[in-house]
Amino acid sequence: MMAPLPSDLEEVLGDLGRCIQALGPYTQTAVLTGGLAALLYRWCLPGTGVGRPPLMTFDMDWAFPPRIEIPGVGLHKRMELGGFKPWLQGAGKDPVTYYQHERHGTDRLAPIHVEFIAPRTGSKTDRSGKNLGIIEIEPGLHAQTDPYIGLLLVENLTVDVSRVPATGLSQPQVIRLPHPICYVVQKILIRHRREPHKQAGDAAHIYDVALLTRDMWPQMADVLARIATSRSFPPRWFVRARQTMGDVFLRPDALGPTEIADIYRSIMGPTAAPTEAAISRVFKQFSEATDLLSH
């Protein structure tokens, strides 16, 4: 049996339930990613009973295709009707749009907030200098873009999130999560761009997902082989992902196991937390089983 959830995580999951209800039909298109996706794998995948405490996360990241075409009430209006207020970050005519529950006010960006993200093909600017790092996915609603987000939109898992505690969803509610192998590859590929504390958090989520999905490792290898040969994504991405896995995660003295061990020591204490050697063994087993081992 899992330990009770921390009160701040209960608050995050409560806002997630409200956000899902606000999104309505958009949950058929959007894919919940980030730390919350890793957390939801605990309750929504078969055979994933976990004794260790959950990793804390606050932001709700929803990946969308570059254009949303759902008839009826628009996404921005739905969020406002659901009690979420926009918060704009950035100067100029295309500030990134975040949403947070109205109880947080709008004076500042709250720790618990919603962000929409979308894939991008090519560089962040076009030949005329136009910023392609932010796009308008709906009139007045701007999302940040990244090429690797496309990985999160393929091979999705559909899960019933009503089984997740503290969401307040009493009826079955299906949403989309990234396939775990796509989640891991995308996290590995963005690592070099992330700030050190975010790199450490991402590493811990990758480790958590690797443990949660042990029963799925053979199926994850099939999915990785399929997307790597699909021509939908550059082959060099998968070469880089395998190289990074080898360089960062497979040795006990590498940066990944060190980061992860430090995080779990802060949560579980020095004696209960996994050691760097144990963490690197998990990554080696995971990489061998899913074909993420560097060749």
Count the strands? Answer: 9
Query: What structural category characterises the helix and strand content?
Result: alpha+beta
Coarse shape: globular
Q: Which oligomeric form is depicted? A: single chain
Overall domain count: 2
Helix content: 40-55%
How big is the Rg?
19 Å
* Nearest-integer average pLDDT: 90
Q: Count the helices. How many?
A: 9
Main sheet specs: 7 strands, mixed
**Could you tell me how far the N terminus lies from the C terminus, measured between alpha carbons in angstroms?**
39 Å
Strand content: 5-15%
**Low-pLDDT stretches:** none
In N-to-C order, the SSE pattern is HEHEHEEEEEEEHHHHHH
Write a structural description.
The chain has 295 residues and is α+β, with helices and mostly antiparallel strands. The chain is 40% helix and 15% strand. It has helices at 7-23, 34-44, 75-81, 180-190, 196-212, 217-228, 235-248, 255-268, 276-290; strands at residues 31-33, 60-63, 84-89, 96-101, 114-119, 134-138, 141-146, 157-160, 174-177. Strands 1, 2, 3, 4, 5, 6 and 7 form a seven-stranded mixed beta sheet that branches. It is globular.
Short description:
The chain has helices at 7-23, 34-44, 75-81, 180-190, 196-212, 217-228, 235-248, 255-268, 276-290; strands at residues 31-33, 60-63, 84-89, 96-101, 114-119, 134-138, 141-146, 157-160, 174-177. By secondary structure, the chain is α+β, with helices and mostly antiparallel strands.
Q: Topology, pairings included?
A:
Layout: H1 7-23, E1 31-33, H2 34-44, E2 60-63, H3 75-81, E3 84-89, E4 96-101, E5 114-119, E6 134-138, E7 141-146, E8 157-160, E9 174-177, H4 180-190, H5 196-212, H6 217-228, H7 235-248, H8 255-268, H9 276-290
Parallel strand pairs: 2-5, 5-7
Antiparallel strand pairs: 1-2, 3-4, 4-5, 6-7, 8-9
Helix pairs in contact: 2-5, 4-5, 4-7, 5-8, 8-9
